[in-house]
Design goal:
This protein is of the alpha+beta class and 521 residues long. It contains 16 helices and 16 strands. It starts with a helix and ends with a helix. Bound molecules: adenosine-5'-diphosphate, zinc ion (ZN) and magnesium ion.
Length: 521
């Protein structure tokens, strides 16, 4: 779908978006109500016990660590923490749920009433609209020079529940039920502690939704509560979307889109839905409240076959567990455990190392990346932090991308990158040579210093040695020398290039420049 179509639609209609984000607490060693291990994959139905299989008579025992992680998540997103809380049974029938009810939370979630501030750059095409004051801008720096802005997204609640098992549909396409000959069920995931976060309908564009989900993932990663792997399903984002004519105060009918397993899919699915709703309304139709499925290949949503009914989950308090009480001192104790969160880290990188905001965010948003950066800077010193950042966001990022690996798996470690920057800073090698050394280190895992020694790559900075080469080049090009001396000083680069070639790139560029200038002058 072309972006200008979205822009055009958003000029007439205001989109209203609320997200529901499920995150598995992968930091927990065990499931929510039993001692089975939490892990991804494995032989089906091997990590199960009578409790997570819902066998008669089995009793749930709540996982204290998972509750603490949820409270931490709430504190990190400015939520109020309930001092009195409780689990409920949510009844529905689906084969991936062995008990035929899910232990979840209803009117007493552990966390409620929080917010996350989201920043949108000014250059997002189709996102930069006059939002007519509809957005609750916050803070004095809310609208930046480039048209970027910051907006506050309310968090209705974060509750804790147990994850379901997984259905495997066999014989159809893409593992979907349509066309399948039969279905299998794997209960390994059943009972995994699962946080569900629900936002207020405060989001207004697909880009804001993407930024919110990315920001939340960065916060969860900073806490260490989950690995937030969207492809493996440990973080799953559903989007509720509606549109209304600009200026209207009434909410439109919403659709709920599922099955987006990347931030790009989240953005594209919401954009698709906004345009679809607008087209339905433009043609005089009515939007049907329904659950839809995002097909990333076809880049469209489709109504789910089984049209969801208005549910009656018949919630009632879980009779096998007593309610929970928290005293404020315990909550304060947990608050003390909060690590530095991505926004604070970004601000620190900007203040301490003078990094531009975008670079600082890129480094701070991922905990591992931030740790790598700080380790390298610790070795080279604060004044070279910019260099470290440039390498990380340039060559290193390209390498990780090409190999599809995380920074922790990179052959070039923080210590190696620091060593490389040190070699450039003390003049041992040139910036150009450093690129070669980096590539070699990335290939072999050898230390930069050793690569420089082995390949005889030491940069030549000795003016005497350079003078001899320069003199040779000048002698070989008398005509060019005459032209230069006649006023065509633009030829300087030609001589420098010849000298560098003679020296196989090992001449110190600053010294070569200086000597060429001097001998020609
Ligand atoms: P439901 O009862 O269908 O589950 P909720 O009121 O619980 O709906 O809201 C679920 C999510 O949908 C929340 O994130 C909420 O912000 C969002 N939402 C509610 N109404 C709308 C709407 N009209 N348009 C877009 N999102 C909405
Ligand atoms: Zn179990
Ligand atoms: Mg709801």
């Amino acid at each position: 779908m072309p972006k200008d179509r979205l822009t055009e639609v958003l000029e007439r209609y205001e989109a209203v978006i609320g997200l529901e984000i499920h995150t598995e607490i992968t930091a927990s060693n065990t499931k929510m109500f039993c001692g089975c291990p939490v892990a991804f994959g494995g032989e089906p139905n091997t990590r199960v016990c009578p409790v997570c299989l819902g066998l008669p008579g089995a009793l749930p025992v709540p996982n204290e660590a998972a509750i603490e992680w949820t409270v931490l998540a709430g504190l990190a997103t400015e939520c109020d923490i309930a001092l009195w809380s409780q689990f409920h049974r949510k009844q529905y029938f689906y084969p991936d749920m062995p008990k035929d009810y899910q232990i979840s939370q209803y009117d007493l979630p552990f966390c409620s009433g929080g917010f996350v501030d989201v920043e949108v750059d000014g250059d997002g095409v189709g996102e930069r609209l006059d939002l007519g004051g509809a957005l609750p801008f916050v803070g004095p720096e809310a609208v930046a020079e480039d048209g970027g802005y910051r907006t506050r997204i309310g968090i209705t609640r974060i509750h804790l529940e147990e994850d379901t098992g997984k259905m495997v549909h066999v014989g159809g396409s893409e593992g979907r039920i349509a066309g399948a000959t039969h279905s299998l069920v794997d209960f390994n995931r059943a009972g995994t502690p699962l946080m569900e976060l629900v936002t207020e309908p405060d989001i207004r564009t697909p880009e804001e939704a993407r930024r919110f989900a990315q920001k939340l993932r960065a916060i969860w990663l900073a806490l260490g509560v989950s690995d937030c792997n969207m492809e493996e399903g440990s973080m799953r984002v559903d989007a509720n979307v509606s549109v209304r004519l600009r200026g209207s105060a009434e909410l439109g009918v919403k659709s709920e889109v599922k099955n987006m397993n990347s931030f790009k899919s989240l953005h594209d699915a919401i954009a698709y839905e906004i345009v679809r709703h607008a087209e339905v309304l433009d043609s005089g139709g009515v939007v049907v409240q329904e659950t839809r499925h995002w097909d990333a290949g076809a880049k469209r949503t489709s109504g789910l076959r089984s049209k969801e009914e208005a549910h009656d989950y018949r919630y009632f308090p879980e009779p096998d567990m007593v309610p929970f009480t928290f005293d404020p001192a315990r909550v304060a104790e947990l608050a003390d455990r909060l690590p530095e969160l991505p926004d604070a880290r970004r601000d620190r990188y900007m203040a301490d190392y003078g990094l531009p905001k975008r670079d600082a965010s890129l480094l701070a948003d991922d905990r591992e990346t931030g740790c790598y950066f700080e380790e390298a800077v610790g070795l080279v010193g604060d004044t070279d932090a910019r260099q470290i950042a440039n390498w990380m966001l340039g060559d290193l990022a390209a390498l990780l991308n090409a190999e599809g690996i995380a920074i922790g798996q990179a052959r070039v470690t923080a210590a190696m990158l620091a060593e490389l920057v040190g070699l450039v800073e003390d003049g041992t090698i040139s910036g150009k040579q450093a690129k070669e050394v980096f590539a070699e280190a990335a290939r072999t895992g050898d230390a930069p210093g050793a690569i420089v020694e082995d390949r005889g790559m030491r940069q030549v900075s000795d003016a005497g040695a350079i003078e001899a080469v320069v003199q040779g080049v000048l002698d070989a090009h008398p005509d060019e020398v005459a032209t230069y001396r006649g006023g065509k000083t633009g030829l300087l680069g030609f001589f420098v290039g010849q000298v560098m070639r003679e020296m196989r790139g090992q001449g110190n560029p600053a010294v070569v420049n200086e000597v060429v200038r001097r001998l020609l002058g």
